[in-house]
Amino acid sequence: GAVVSQHPSRVICKSGTSVKIECRSLDFQATTMFWYRQFPKQSLMLMATSNEGSKATYEQGVEKDKFLINHASLTLSTLTVTSAHPEDSSFYICSALGHATYEQYFGPGTRLTVT
Amino acid sequence: AQSVTQLDSQVPVFEEAPVELRCNYSSSVSVYLFWYVQYPNQGLQLLLKYLSGSTLVKGINGFEAEFNKSQTSFHLRKPSVHISDTAEYFCAVSVGTDKLIFGTGTRLQVFP
């Protein structure tokens, strides 16, 4: 149980285009999901906390107009990178908070490459 | 605010040897503690967690960790490592259901 999926696993896009990444909790409902960014050989940096039915809470320094987060249902959160640039290339990982376990279940990640 | 320190960026070890990955944290309130493992180009997998109770926590793949409140540490140990344990290991803390604060990670490299 407690499986989280991400789609796509890899995406290459041209500079200036937008890319949407989906995060789904497959066998449980998640009122809270998190989006992280990981640069090569570095730790995970929290970008935002996504709560179902409300606006996401962004960490300091993360542009909310560039990284659009939508959590429209209890099993799906999306991250849209708008007007992507090469410096947005990174590994994006989502997680979903399990109820009563205080544990975040992580997705497999999405490798974004902007050319 | 909370912070996590993993002093060892890399830990090389031979197969079947014991290993300890160090983690220290800083917090003015009680925290929950976690160890995650990440294999190349994959997400994170939970090894073990400490929420309350016994300070010695046993996790998957033969790993265990001990919570030491006085030393604000949560070191990860395994008595005998395998080649397949080669991966990146992250220590993390949270306050309740709040966000996870990660350490910088420790690369465990197991040699035959």
Summed up, what is this model?
The complex is a heterodimer of chains A (115) and B (112). Chain A has 115 residues and is mostly beta strands.
**Structural class assignment of chain A:** mainly beta
Helix content of chain A: under 10%
Structural class computed from helices and strand pairing of chain B: mainly beta
- Our estimate of the beta-strand percent of chain A is over 45%
Quaternary status: heterodimer
Sum up the overall morphology of chain A in one term: globular
Helix-strand pattern of chain B, N to C?
Answer: EEEEEEEEEEEE
Total count of strands of chain B: 12
How many helix segments of chain A?
A: 0
SSE arrangement of chain A, N to C? EEEEEEEEEEE
Secondary structure tally, helices of chain B = 0
Low-confidence stretches of chain B: none
Biggest chain-to-chain interface with counts: A-B, 22 and 21 residues
Counted beta strands of chain A: 11
Q: In angstroms, what is the radius of gyration of chain B? A: 13 Å
Biggest beta-sheet profile of chain A = 7 strands, mixed
Provide mean pLDDT of chain A, rounded.
91
